[in-house]
Design goal:
Largest sheet: 6 strands, antiparallel
Number of strands: 17
Number of helices: 6
CATH class: Alpha Beta
CATH architecture: 4-Layer Sandwich
Radius of gyration: 17 Å
Shape: globular
Helix content: 10-25%
Mean pLDDT: 92
Distance between the termini: 29 Å
Structural class: alpha+beta
């Protein structure tokens, strides 16, 4: 598979919004509705990350979150080989959306670097709109199969039956994905997984996060991944629901618009 190749500076600068500027929340909301991705800088402490996060989202508490609602992402040296805990190791992570095994995953995910890795640890981001378009244009069979309801089960015994692409009533599309040991697939989908994985990697953008830098994404549109690392890399993550209206997922590009069949049982 081809590795992500876009220069960090171009990707980060293209999506950067000054979160201290007047009407910053409105600018962030508009960008999220447009592209689903915002980059930020100057969040140099946990307190600053929490203040920014709570200004744009209602935090979602979950298994891994701390008492303040943030999750500390670092190599714990005890979770790496447990299914569903790979983020707390120092290995690479496959493209995924957060909380994919829950009925209603949070719309927003914020990740900010507190301490950089010695080597590796780059964030790898993939626009689900690009993956969807790729699969439909190169051969509609994969895209159609991945939108069939209840063709995937994400999570452990209390997980959720769903599909990779959910087509809503307005024909917008949401993506939901995990590729680890907590993903189980209907035989209809199984032959198309290599094509899905290849597309997710082909469209990756690379971000090298220094302390204080981070990204905010629409968890129904963007996949994120990570390269393996060495050193005491530490990030803070916030998950939650936006404090402003956002349409579901993304509008498919015209050439890859799905047929008018719903898969809305997310």
């Amino acid at each position: 598979m081809r590795r992500a190749h876009q220069p960090y500076a171009d990707v980060f600068a293209r999506h950067l919004i000054d979160h201290t500027a007047p009407r910053a929340v409105e600018a962030i909301a508009e960008r999220l509705r447009d592209t689903g991705l915002v980059t930020v800088e100057g969040l140099t402490s946990r307190t600053a990350v929490l203040a920014f996060a709570t200004g744009i989202m209602s935090l979602t508490s979950h298994r891994d979150s701390d008492s303040d609602g943030l999750t500390t992402i670092h190599h714990t040296r005890r979770h790496a080989h447990r299914a569903g805990f790979a983020g707390f190791g120092n290995g690479g992570l496959d493209p995924h959306t957060d909380r994919s095994g829950t009925p209603n995953p949070p719309r927003l995910m914020l990740l900010v670097c507190g301490q950089a890795a010695i080597t590796g640890g780059e964030s790898l981001l993939t626009d689900g709109q690009a993956v969807h378009s790729d699969l439909f244009i190169s051969g509609r069979e994969a895209g159609l199969a991945l939108a069939q309801p209840r063709t995937a089960f994400f999570g452990a015994g209390d997980g959720h039956a769903t599909q990779v692409f959910t087509v809503h009533r307005d024909q917008r599309v949401s993506v939901r994905l995990r590729l680890d040991g907590l993903a189980r697939w209907n035989p209809i989908v199984q032959p198309h997984l290599p094509q899905l994985q290849a597309a997710a990697v082909r469209h990756q953008m690379r971000l090298i996060l220094a302390p204080g830098l981070g990204y905010l994404l629409d968890n129904e549109r963007w996949l994120h991944a990570r390269r393996a690392f060495t050193g005491d890399r530490l990030c803070w993550r916030a998950l939650g629901q936006p404090r402003f209206p956002m349409p579901r997922g993304f509008a498919p590009v015209p050439a890859s618009a799905p047929p008018p069949v719903l898969s809305e049982a997310g």
